[in-house]
Amino acid sequence: MSKTGQQQQQYLNQVSINVPPQLPSKCFDDDGRLKRTGSVWTASAHIITAVIGSGVLSLAWATAQLGWIAGPTVMFLFSFVTYYTSTLLAACYRSGDPDSGKRNYTYMDAVRSNLGGFQVKLCGAIQYLNLFGVAIGYTIASSISMMAIDRSNCFHSKGHESPCRVSSNPYMIAFGVVEIVFSQIPDFDQISWLSIVAAVMSFTYSTIGLGLGIAKVAENGKIKGSLTGISIGTVTETQKIWRSFQALGAIAFAYSYSLILIEIQDTIKSPPSEYKTMKKATLLSVVVTTAFYMSCGCFGYAAFGDSSPGNLLTGFGFYNPYWLLDIANAAIVIHLIGAYQVYCQPLFAFVEKTAREWFPHSEFITKEIAIPIPGLKSLKLNLFRLVWRTVFVIITTIISMLMPFFNDVVGILGAFGFWPLTVYFPVEMYIKQKRIPKWSPRWLSLQILSGACLMISIAAAAGSFAGVVSDLKVYRPFKTT
Question: Are 353 and 124 in contact (CB under 8 A)?
Fold first, then answer.
């Protein structure tokens, strides 16, 4: 290269080194990604879609195990803990400055930035295994609701003396087929509309469940239940203990959404800071869900007492007005279609990101094929996404068909995910980020909270596993009920 050429190259190098980083523009955020458009309302819709899920239907049963004193008290305590630890976790979305610090796009990214090391792998394993479990739980719950519609219509047309036997397998397969289609939506940002529809559906069936509970109380002419819950004699002392523990897991599952909180927060626009918006969305969502939970759990228990069903809507002893039950169960199915996507999108994104990092030159993994759709935008089809997400849905559907124990699965998921994801990691990251001194009053308070929640999770897991063992003694796979 000539001397003049060398001088030009040195000049260009100096220019490229001194170019300031790109500032946020109308189209892009400070990290160079497309402008985020989420708000308090879209974040709340995502949270409500995730929180007011199938878990609300088991709360009457959970209240029946604990009684009028412990049941509502435990629900309130879980709501407070969930809100408090969610605000701690939301503060970890950005490392350093809450307005301009480095973004953490996923829960694992937040753990990596604040704790690092082995804890990142542990967090990932727990989070993604829990998401996998939620997909199974939602497949089971949707089939139960579809079976309820079938049985309700059967009883209406053939009379209550008819056996009306129904198999859950065709309904699980149908739900799986629908999820295969919706799973092709590329990422979280593009499912806001699905979350809003699902949130509306969750309010629909929760309100119907509440209304039917109130109607049942009026029909009975009294409030059923007791201060201490289901009585010894109806169940044995051992069953009472295990069921009480399982009820803790069911309530924990009903409030669980921390495992996708960071992913939801990453959809929010700024200013104001994502933390401020997420804190408002969390407060709004937890207040709304707690009001619904208290109402459904308490009125369900008041209506049925010790015989409160594991699934409030499908356990009603009467099938009139059958059309109202059909609407409620249809709303559950529509809600669960959206909730399945809200929970699975982070898992889908993790696997696809990892695959691109491992095989960056593979066209099967990276190539997007544009398929024109008349009157609409072209559909971008990725073959790896199509194959992997389809296989994932098929696996969760098959496992659901083999183990359709709604209450036990809900309890296990709640117990397994509550302490590490809702309490432990948010507390530890917050301590590290805020540099809270060891053995200080605040540090001790946070550790006591974490320790107490660990004990609750262990008890809930023990009760739920005991329930699964009990069910397996009498269960026959693929049996028509």
Answer: no
Whether 38 contacts 268, CB under 8 Å = yes
Give the integer Cα–Cα distance in Å for 431 and 429: 5
Average pLDDT score over the chain: 77
What is 36-472's CATH number?
1.20.1740.10
Decide: 256 and 460 in contact? Cβ < 8 Å.
no
Are 428 and 451 contacting, i.e. CB atoms less than 8 angstroms apart?
no
E strand residue ranges, 317-427: 368-371, 379-382
Q: How is the chain split into domains, by residue range? A: 36-472
What are the distances in angstroms from CA 197 to CA 108, 135, 204, 430? 28, 19, 11, 34
Pair of tokens at residue 441: 């009053």
pLDDT value of position 444:
92
Whole-prediction pTM: 0.74
Residues 6+ apart with CB under 8 A from 416: 126, 129, 130, 133, 457, 461
Q: φ, ψ for residue 116 (rounded to 5)?
A: 70, -175
